[in-house]
Every structure is written in structure tokens, then in C-alpha cells.
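Final report, results section. Input specification for complex C-07:
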Amino acid sequence: MRRCTLLALCILALSTGALSARARAFSDPERFTAPTDEGGGGGRFFTGSWSDGFTCAVCHRGGPAPDVRITGMPTNGFLPGQLVEAELSFGNDQRNHALALEVVDDLGRDLGLEILPDEQIAITERCGAVQGAQRASYLAEAGARRVLGVEACEAKTVRFRFRTPQSPRIMFVATVLASDNSASIEGDGVTEIAQSLFQNGKSAGAAASSGCSSVVSGRASMFSVCSLLVLALLARQRRSRRPGTVA
Amino acid sequence: VRRFQKYLPRAGLACTVLVAACETPASGTTRVPAPDVATFELDVYPVLLRDCGFPECHGSPDRFFRVYGPGRSRLNKETLTFAPATPDELEQSYDRARSMLAHQTSVTESWLLRKPLAVAAGGAEHGGEDRWGRNVYETTDTPGYQPLYRWAVGAPRVSAPDAGSLR
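Structure output:
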């Protein structure tokens, strides 16, 4: 009897541990729209878009930024009404990846972003990159926004479609998170992508960064320069005080 | 470098004190309002969690102004990430938000109302810009700013504050 009780307690402890590890995840789609006082994003998907300028990097930190490859984007210019099918590949390492992305026009409006029908998606777009497993991607609508998300379930790629608008410029933004599966925000890496695409190739710009935004990076580098100057001064003072040194 | 890093927090504190001292008129009296606690918990706290309380921002122990709660930094590390806010977390978040309302002339000059607001709209410099270099709220009419403002100035609570859209 006592052995049974012990076994039951062990099973309970293990299942509670598993549940709490799962409950820590912020990759469940409904988590982003849930009220903040329930631990949700309150409408933030952390895509880094014009209407949602913070990214996963406001929480996750400490790990190397994941490598992300984008194919299919009309980087040499687009024609209005063109159907674009693009792919993001992000599974080059053993870590677990999640992402959120948006494609918007000049005014920040969604361009009718779509994910591919289930029968068309590749194995690498499925959880665990396994045949027959559930798809990792989902579409979430929040007001006028439409966000494509990928759950952290070991998929390696995601494909999506949209039709180019009449406006001269469109913006593609994404935040890709590589989790170390520690069920904490530590040890995770973030890659932020912002790509401007222009009609008829008038001009083009692309930016991919990791961690903080370029503004923050600029400040960080200025801080580094200042710190180096201060350190150099301190070192010089110390050297001049060192016995045997000619001042 | 380690030796230098050791003094960084103290240097930061000293700078803060110096800046505060420079901005304080010698004869001024600092006032710290005590706005309604219930309004804070219902209208202000959710907005602070959504827009400020991230672990790299005002959920960080490196910052004076901190917001604790579910899905963000927890006051007690043993608290489950998504468990409801504890009374201590609500109290600490209220106290810190309240202390950010300290002012000498008008509460609209307080850090809580100026730091997250764009400089062009009367705000102050703030490290927490988004990836486009923008402050949290672009104008005083931005939905997220309104609950902070109304609470700080003691305006009557509106039944359903519109804090829905992000910008």
C-alpha cells in the first residue's frame, strides 16, 4: 500500500513538473491576445512591426541569435497584385524555434497574409519536422493586424503568401526566437528582421539584427567607446603611479 | 574591466542623484500623490504589465521602477510564471509607480507621465524605445497613456478604459 502511495506521489510530482514547464511557455498562440493581468501579451505579438515595435528581445536573452534564411521575397521589386510565396528557414541548430511575423503596407495595414493549406505544407513545417504531425504555424487576428506565428515545437521552416498592394512600399518584419528548452527566458537567442520591399525595384533596403534594436546598439557602441576611453585613462594613471615608472 | 564594472551601479546612482539635484529648485517641495489603489489595480497595472514590465525593461532588478506580475518578472522566484499577481506584487508595483509620480509643480511633470511619452509630446528621454526608435506613447491621446494619466491626476474612473490598441 505504501509503495502504491509513493508511486502515485512520484507520478503526480513528475506530471506537475511537466505541466509547470509547459505553462511557462509564451509560445501558445492564445497567450499573446490574453489579458496582461492573466500573463498574456494584451495584444502584443512582439513582431517588431510599426504597430507593435517591441520584439521577443524584451524578455528573452543570453543565447546566440538564430540563423534565419528568407527566400521568395521580391527583393528586386514587385508589381501590384503579384502573389508572393515566401519561406523562412530557421532550424539549422538543435534549438527550438518560434517566430512571429507581419507583412504590412505603408500605413501598417495587413496585406492579407495567408498560411498554406494543411495538405500543402512540408514536413519541415510540422511539429518535430515529422510526417503527419500537426502544423506549427498559425494565423492570429488582432484588430486590423494579422500575425503569422510559429509555435516552438521543433519545426524548421514556414511558408506564407500575400498579394502585393498598390502602395509603393511594403514592410516585412519578423522576430525569430531560438529557445534552449530551459523553460526560462535565459539562454534564448533572438533574430529581428525588418525588410522594406519596393514597387518596381525603385529602391530596396533590408535589415536583420539580433537582440536589441539598432538604436540601442548605437547607444551601446557609444557607451563602449566612452568606457574604453575611461579605462584607457585609468590605466594611464595607474601606470604613472606604478613604482619604478618615470612619470 | 571587472573593477570598473563594480562601480557602475554606484556611478549610475550618483548620476541620478546629481541630475535630480540639478533639476530641483532649492526652495521646492516634493509631493508624492497617493492615487487610488483600486483604480491602479484595475486600469493601470494591466497597462504597465503590457507596455513596461518586460524582464529586459522594467521587470529588471537594475531599474528602480519595476512592475511585477504574471507572464513577466515575479517578485518571488518561486511563484509560477503565469500564476495571478500576488498581493505583494501588486503592492510593490503600486508603490514604485506611485513614487514615480513625485513632483514639485504638477503631477504631469512626474517621471511616470513623462518618461514613456515622446519628447515631441512633452515627454522625456527614455531608454525603452522600440526598434523604430519610438517612445512607448507617441501622444497623450495614445490609448495606453490615458489610464496612467487619469489615475495620476485623480480623474474619475471610466467604466471601460480603452487601452486596446498598442499605439
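The longest helix of chain B spans residues 8-23. The helical segments of chain B are 2-6, 8-23, 37-51, 87-99, 111-114, 145-153. This concludes the modelling results for the funded period.
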